[in-house]
Design brief:
Largest sheet: 3 strands, antiparallel
Number of helices: 9
CATH topology: Hypothetical protein af1432
Helix content: 55-70%
Order of helices and strands: HHEEEHHHHHEEHHEE
Number of strands: 7
Distance between the termini: 7 Å
Structural class: mainly alpha
């Protein structure tokens, strides 16, 4: 992505966060997640999760927008429902495209199943990240602790285990998400990266 496009997208998204009522710590966190998400896709080709040989195309702009706006729901909620709330803000108030709404709604942890959503008072729908763009944003969010501090997957898992217990299904999902995003990428020094413009 050209620097000019990156600056335009960043400015637009940060304005939306401010106009929606997000405080500065949320905005700083979203910016840090967006930078990490771009680093994750930079100079990498992602293998299709259903195949070890086929590559998938990653929409760099969708990842960047999704990462910048992933916590827009924190303007109204600091609970587990902030992803759902953010998606509703993006859809109903801002009229953003559905692919972006799904990135926002599916970024919490390593996803929330329909059964888990119902148990915590959310609509009984699947909030699991499915596309590589959704997975990259969710994973980058998991690796930013607070406003800007990067953390390891190991530290993230230790924190999650202390909050939810070692047997919570989110633990295995977090490890699978890490493998999908980080373990299924290949260094791409000789080929051009497949990035949708």
């Amino acid at each position: 992505m050209e620097e000019e496009d990156k600056k335009r997208i960043r400015d637009e998204c940060l304005s939306l966060l401010q106009e929606s009522g997000c405080d500065n710590s949320v905005i700083e966190h979203c910016s840090a997640v967006a930078e990490l998400a771009l680093e994750i896709i930079d100079h990498k080709t992602f293998l299709d999760t259903d195949s070890d040989t086929d590559t998938c195309t990653v929409d760099e702009r969708l990842v960047f927008r999704g990462a910048l706006l992933h916590d827009i729901g924190r303007a109204q909620s600091d609970g587990i429902d902030h992803g759902f709330v953010g998606g509703e803000i993006a859809r109903r108030e801002l009229g953003l495209e559905e692919r972006l709404v799904r990135v926002i709604q599916r970024h919490v942890g390593a996803g929330i199943t329909a059964e888990e959503a119902k148990a915590v008072g959310l609509p009984s729908i699947d909030f699991m990240p499915r596309t590589m763009e959704e997975k990259i944003v969710a994973h980058a969010d998991n690796l930013i602790d607070g406003c800007q501090r990067r953390t390891s997957i190991d530290d993230t898992l230790v924190n999650l285990r202390s909050k939810l217990g070692s047997s919570h299904p989110s633990i295995k999902r977090m490890m699978a998400l890490h493998k999908d995003v980080m373990g299924k990428r290949t260094e791409n020094r000789d080929q051009k990266i497949e990035i949708r413009e």
